[in-house]
Write a structure and sequence with these properties.
It is built from 19 helices and 26 strands. It has 715 residues and is α+β, with helices and mostly antiparallel strands. Strands 1, 2, 3, 4, 5, 6, 7, 8, 9, 10, 11 and 12 form a twelve-stranded mixed sheet that branches. Strand 13 (439-449) and strand 14 (457-469) form a beta hairpin.
Length: 715
């Protein structure tokens, strides 16, 4: 149970809320003003028999006075405060910070999870837990929620925005959100809860995390040097994801404020400039309790809500563990509004699934995908290193489960990369890849520049490169995922100019604190790389901050790091041509590429014809031949169509022809009905294919293969 606030500070605030002086309370109680002053200054506390009289004077119950875990409800009720219009006539068409990101739940997941990682309480060593709850409200549940957010107070402001919607992008989004709620009779709430985080600590107005998130823009107050955010823009994704521009907040604090920690509640609304009943309003509004210390008690501040209030606002937290709950009201996900076409019979007149399930389930799936893609490393532990993060997604309708809570599993979402990182943590990496499932390690240098544009190098940070075989559960193969201290994937990039025949692989680059506690210049690398990230934190390169703090050429250090990484990856995954394994030698003996002068049935001849130049084949898990072929193309504006034909090599008689199960173009050509059509003026073409096992007359392991390139259809 939450510990109550000290009586003196609590009583002083209740008097302000009620608009009552110490002298008036003393008169009401039949006591001297000095007695009340002694309570306020904590020199004494009232006798138990007086507590009931104090409760009556404040218009509350005796339990509230005894526990002091919430404010009284007397005077100055919770309401919306709308910032007045600028006196100089200026107008804002919305919060510009929200336009830095798309209204996309995957972007929301990336930014909010990054913020939670930055605010993780590190002393206990436990991960920060983040839960995403998609909750659709209809019918009575929707009406009850509208009453809880004081919709009648807000409706004139939304009407004013709708009237000017044609002139403002934000206005059009808000107008569509309001119409969706009333025409379809539904509202989607998306709540983001984190636990084992610092919570929104600090005063309502002074410097602190609360003011940075709720009151200010472009201010970032992060807890550690390895923090992901640096622009103060990430929080804007919360409001950008709301079609109504509304976010409600309930925070449990890691450091008490006003003697309390639980149920610190406030709401913020982001609307464009509007005129309501002859008064102009600048844009933002806040839901809270009027602050008696502000002029005319108009400005509202956060308040300590009771359990019933947070339940009506759908802000009830699961425990008293520190952290914050953000409720996005009217959540929309532009990227999932056009998923795979549903059956027309399942659609209503508006073209969406009749029960709305399709929208919220698409959001659920996309959240899981984004969390697994961007935070797999933060959710991975091994050896003596614990995960930094746990994430969960669940979907409800009117309190009933639509999709059960799903814990995002990094091993399921990113199997190869998770295995590689665990091997690093557990010390089981190798120098070279000689067996399936191994993880090879290389160090790559990041030469850090001196600040202020001075020539020279501060020092060399040794990043850690991990390379392993790709698995079927991976997304894109042959990629490098790069990350630093908070273990969020910053950069995803392919390795250019890989030769044919490279086995699919995955690579992970660990920099800064992610490279290990003993990594040299880890702190400096974190600072440098953080400055090289744009607001999206999805790459490293030239930024204004990098130029101002280091130099306009500092980003070349990152380019050189990329070159080192690509070279190290190739050194690990490319097999030397001169020496091959016994298995590769056996496969090469089974593979034949007809050359000039060799007999081949119906083989085209003459100048200007494409010609097979290089070939790689392997036997797949299903017994099929998997072939990658490179074709040398002559210089010509028009090239004849050619058909790749795969045959079994036999000692006598005609060669049995195998069917293609799959034939795809990779580079410099297109495949149409099994025929290759080459790109004009291209110098080379590459295609891949696999044979149909059903057309094999004998076991694949007992056969030799011949690949021919025939003119026309190959018949």
């Amino acid at each position: 149970m939450e510990a109550g606030e000290e009586f003196g500070p609590w009583l002083a605030r209740q008097l302000k809320i009620a608009g009552m002086t110490q002298a008036e309370l003393a008169e009401e109680l039949g006591l001297t003003r000095a007695a009340v002053s002694a309570w306020i200054t904590k020199r004494s506390v009232p006798r138990p028999t007086v507590m009931g009289e104090i409760a009556k004077a404040l218009g509350t119950d005796l339990g509230t006075v005894h526990t002091r875990t919430t404010d009284t409800q007397a005077g100055l009720p919770v309401t919306w405060y709308h910032r007045p219009g600028y006196q100089d006539g200026g107008r804002d068409g919305g919060n510009a910070a929200a336009f830095a990101f798309d209204a996309d739940v995957q972007v929301l997941a990336r930014e909010t999870c990054q913020n939670s990682l930055d605010e993780r309480l590190v002393e206990n060593g436990r991960p920060v837990r983040v839960r995403y709850t998609i909750h659709e409200l209809t019918g009575e549940a929707l009406e009850a929620f509208r009453a809880a957010i004081l919709w009648d107070e807000l409706q004139p402001h939304y009407l004013a925005v709708s009237e000017s919607a044609a002139d403002q992008k934000v206005g059009r989004v808000v107008d569509a959100g309001v119409r969706d709620m009333f025409e379809k009779g539904r509202l989607i709430l998306l709540r983001v809860d984190d636990y084992n985080a610092s919570g929104l600590t600090g005063d309502d107005y002074d410097d602190g995390k609360f003011a940075a998130v709720v009151r200010r823009q472009l201010e970032s107050l992060k807890s550690g040097s390895g923090a992901g955010g640096s622009y103060g823009l990430g929080k804007a994704t919360l409001w950008a994801t709301s079609a109504l521009g509304m976010v409600l907040i309930n925070s449990t604090l890691s450091v008490p404020h006003e003697g309390r920690t639980e149920r610190r509640v406030i709401g913020r609304l982001e609307l464009p400039w509007r005129a309501v009943d002859g008064s102009a309003y600048a844009g933002p509004a806040w839901l809270g309790r009027p602050d008696p210390e502000t002029p005319a008690a108009e400005v509202v501040r956060s308040w300590w809500a009771d359990e019933e209030t947070v339940e009506r606002l759908h802000l009830t937290r699961d425990s008293d563990e520190p952290g914050t709950s953000f409720l996005i009201v009217g959540a929309h996900d532009v990227a999932s509004l056009a998923p795979e076409k549903t059956d027309p019979a399942d659609e209503d007149d508006n073209g969406s699934a009749a029960d709305g399930t399709h929208d919220i389930e698409a959001m659920h799936t996309r959240l899981v995908e984004a969390l697994g893609r961007d935070f797999w490393a933060a959710m991975t532990g091994g050896g003596n290193r614990l995960p930094l993060l746990e994430t969960y997604v669940r979907t409800l309708r009117n309190g009933e489960v639509v999709r059960e809570e799903e814990k995002v599993d990094p091993l399921k979402e990113q199997p190869s990369r998770t295995r590689a990182l665990r091997a690093f943590y557990e010390g089981t990496t190798v120098d070279r890849l000689t067996q399936a499932g191994q993880v090879a390690l290389r160090t790559v240098p990041l030469r850090l520049p001196l600040s202020g544009g001075r020539p020279g190098t501060l020092g060399t940070h040794q990043g850690v490169l991990l390379v392993t075989d790709a698995e079927e559960g991976d997304d894109a193969h042959n990629q490098v995922h790069s990350l630093r201290g908070n273990r969020m994937t910053i950069k995803r990039s392919g390795v250019p100019r890989l030769p044919l025949g490279v086995n699919p692989f995955q690579a992970v680059l660990l920099l800064g604190h992610a490279a290990g506690e003993s990594a040299s210049f880890a702190v400096e690398a974190e600072e440098f790389l953080r400055a090289a990230e744009p607001p999206e934190h999805d790459r490293w390169g030239q930024t204004e901050e990098l130029t101002l703090r280091w130099s306009h050429t500092a980003h070349h250090r990152i380019s050189r790091l990329t070159t080192e990484v690509n070279a190290a990856v190739k050194e690990l995954v490319v097999r030397p041509k001169s020496v091959g394994s016994q298995e590769s030698a056996k496969l090469r003996k089974k593979l034949t590429v007809p050359r000039k002068g060799a007999a081949a049935p119906k083989r085209a001849s003459g100048p200007g014809l494409p010609e097979l130049d290089d070939l790689h084949a392997e036997i797949g898990a299903g017994g099929e031949w998997r072939i990658t072929a490179e074709v040398k193309l002559p210089r010509a504006d028009e090239l004849p169509a050619m058909s790749p034909v795969v045959l079994l090599d036999v000692r006598s008689g005609s060669r049995p022809r195998l069917d293609w199960a799959e034939l795809v173009a990779v580079e410099g050509c297109e495949v149409e009905d099994g025929v290759l059509r080459f790109t004009p003026r291209a110098r080379r073409a590459v295609f891949r294919g696999s044979t149909d096992v059903g057309s094999h007359p004998v076991r694949t392991q007992l056969t030799r293969l011949v690949l021919e390139l025939r003119a026309g259809t190959g018949e």
